[in-house]
Inverse folding.
C-alpha cells in the first residue's frame, strides 16, 4: 500500500494530484465495506415498534376485563327474567286479568248489555224522525218528499246494520262464555308459554358464557414465557 504513496520525481502536476487522492479513496472504500446495509439499519430501528408477547397478552387481558361487566349484567338480567317467569303469583295475576277482561266484555255484549240496545236506539231515532217529517208542514211538498225518501233509506240501512250487530254480539258472547269455561286450560297454556320463554333465555346466556370461556382459555394458554 505504501508504494502508491511514493511519487517519482519526474511525475507531472496531474500525476501528483491523482496520487494525492489515493489515500482519501482508500479510506472511503474501507468505510463503505464496514458500514451495514441500509435495510439492516432500518430493520434494527423498527424492531422496537414490534408488539411483544407481553404486550399482546396484556391486550387480551384488557379485552377480557371489558367483556366481564356485560356478562355480569346479562347474568343478572337472566336471573331476574327466570324469577319472573317462574313466579306463580304473577301467573295467577295474568289469568285474573284475563278473567276480569272477559267478564267486562261479556257484560257489554250480553242480552241486556249496552251493545244489544245500540241498534234499537238508532232504529227508534230513525223511525221517529220519519214520522216527524211526515207531520211537519214547514216544507214544500217536493222538499218533504225528498227528506222522507232519505229517512226511509236510513231506516232501512239502520235495520240491516242492527241485525248485523245483533248477530255479531251473540256470537261474541257465546265465545266469551266458552272462554270462561276453559280458563283452567288457558292458564296451563300460558304457563307452558312462560316455560318456553325461560328456555330461550337460558340458551342465550349459555352461548354468552361459552364465548367468554373460549376467550378465557386463550388467555390462560398464554400464561407461559415466550419461546417455552
Amino acid at each position: 500500500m505504501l508504494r502508491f504513496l511514493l511519487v517519482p520525481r519526474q511525475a507531472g502536476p496531474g500525476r501528483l494530484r491523482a496520487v494525492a487522492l489515493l489515500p482519501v479513496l482508500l479510506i472511503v472504500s474501507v468505510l463503505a465495506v464496514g458500514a451495514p446495509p441500509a435495510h439492516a439499519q432500518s430493520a434494527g430501528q423498527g424492531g422496537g415498534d414490534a408488539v411483544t408477547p407481553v404486550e399482546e397478552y396484556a391486550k387480551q387481558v384488557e379485552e377480557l376485563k371489558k367483556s366481564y361487566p356485560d356478562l355480569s349484567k346479562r347474568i343478572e338480567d337472566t336471573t331476574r327474567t327466570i324469577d319472573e317467569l317462574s313466579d306463580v303469583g304473577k301467573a295467577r295475576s295474568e289469568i285474573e286479568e284475563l278473567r276480569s277482561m272477559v267478564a267486562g266484555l261479556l257484560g257489554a255484549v250480553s242480552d241486556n248489555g249496552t251493545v244489544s240496545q245500540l241498534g234499537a236506539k238508532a232504529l227508534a231515532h230513525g223511525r221517529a224522525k220519519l214520522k216527524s217529517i211526515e207531520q211537519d208542514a214547514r216544507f214544500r211538498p217536493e222538499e218533504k218528499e225528498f227528506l222522507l225518501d232519505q229517512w226511509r233509506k236510513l231506516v232501512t240501512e239502520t235495520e240491516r246494520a242492527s241485525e248485523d250487530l245483533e248477530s255479531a254480539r251473540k256470537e261474541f258472547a257465546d265465545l266469551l262464555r266458552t272462554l270462561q269455561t276453559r280458563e283452567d286450560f288457558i292458564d296451563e297454556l300460558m304457563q307452558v308459554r312462560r316455560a318456553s320463554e325461560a328456555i330461550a333465555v337460558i340458551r342465550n346466556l349459555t352461548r354468552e358464557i361459552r364465548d367468554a370461556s373460549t376467550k378465557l382459555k386463550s388467555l390462560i394458554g398464554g400464561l407461559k414465557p415466550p419461546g417455552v
